[in-house]
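Appendix B. One record, verbatim.
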Amino acid sequence: MLRLTVLLLVLANAGYFAWAHGSLRAWGLGPAQQSEPQRLEQQIRPQSIRILRPDEARRLEPAPTGLAQAAECLQAGPLDDTQVAGLRPLLETWPAGSWSLEPVVEPGRWIIYMGKYATVENTARKKAELRQLGVSFEALTDPSLEPGLSLGGFTSQAEASQQLEAFLQRGVRSAKVMQERSELRGRLLKFSVVDDGLRPRLGELAPVLNAQTLRPCR
């Protein structure tokens, strides 16, 4: 019985081998043919196919179109008389109506100040304490007050003092109200519509604006 079983297995393997290799195709037996010779016959001038070098492939790539930036309103100021005098000759070459110089008054700025600290490490330690109390802080705009922290800016001393009282109740210590900047008067330079045509020309104004930067209109 065992010999018969072994003989049947040998015959089955031999039959599968013959079937898989197409030996029985003459009797209509065999696996489905995977090759597609008809596709080779449909090729047009296959001898013309050539692999391109990287530089040739790059030349054939479509040029990037690039999306135009949306037009925006930009302003800078207050500017003093010297800056305004330097800007006018430059702005006269700009399209009419694209700019304006308007009188402006910037109110004084009061801050809740903490500092000066002896070291940067002391400043970092104070920041960690404020985070634990859930009190936010911001960078100082006056370098002479560094190293220190601002807990917010206000347009009046009364507003700043009111907020300081709230901070004291939350556990903030050693903070005080001080005036960071006095009232400023001058001219506001404003570009109502800055598009891709005018945007490259903004660099012409940088030497006259000095530290002033163009920012989105308020």
